[in-house]
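Notes taken during the Thursday session

The instructor put the following on the board and asked us to keep it in front of us for the whole hour. The protein is Cobyrinic acid ac-diamide synthase. We were told not to look anything up and to reason only from what is written here. First, the residues (250 in total):
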Amino acid sequence: MTKIIAVSGKGGTGKTMFSTLLVKAISQKTNNLLVIDADPDSNLPETLGEPVETTIGDIREELKELTQKDNIPSGMSKQDYLKSRIFEIVVEAEGFDLLVMGRPEGSGCYCSVNSWLRQIIDNFSKDYDYVVIDTEAGLEHLSRRTTKNVDTMIVVSDASKRGLGTAKRIKKLANELEIKFKDIFVVANKINEENKSIVENNAKELELNLIGKLPFNEEIAQYDLVGKPLFNIDKNNEVFLEVNKIADKL
Ligand SMILES: Nc1ncnc2c1ncn2[C@@H]1O[C@H](COP(=O)(O)OP(=O)(O)O)[C@@H](O)[C@H]1O
Ligand SMILES: [Mg+2]
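Then, after some discussion, the predicted structure tokens were revealed:
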């Protein structure tokens, strides 16, 4: 059985940082892991240290062009074309495979292609033990249904009550849209001795399941500052050790 984990939250809360370290943690347990960067403003390839040339969005455009020119390879349906291209663009890295969604669909809806893509990616995901998805900021992924089949939703939050409120809204919206996650957890990020108990109280008040608290860490900030892949951070880094514990609970 594949376990699909999505990482969500407001922009700048640490989704990509957490996703990167979660991938590092899970890839120590299994190599059968698919990572999907579903943030249009994607930077997971950089933090994982795995450059990606072609995105799913590019393939969607390719198909549009080929269709306009009536140039689909003969004997191939559009679905076959998408499927074979997705197989081609997956980056096979050490410990995980990586797929980048890229820019989302523009205003002129290309709905059938989007639903084919979703279906192909869903099927493709079934061959893995774990799928980790770094989502776009906010709640759009829910209404677009990109996180419909997710087992575990992890909302990364800063210490503020407003930040935790996003987790509450994700819970509520998922309910309204009849999207069922097996679990929804909150990871509080950039936590220190001063704000720790406040975060705990706020989470309790909002009835959120706080699965971990990550400290602010200079080394992580430094990696990002100079653009070094966070995936290569020392395995004794304090934040990574915490993420490892979270990974064991998932
Ligand atoms: N625990 C942490 N300690 C230090 N810096 C952090 C920590 N978590 C995130 N950051 C930094 O905060 C910034 C935003 O994090 P990022 O993961 O890119 O957020 P998001 O993906 O949610 O927009 C980045 O510069 C990142 O390096
Ligand atoms: Mg990000």
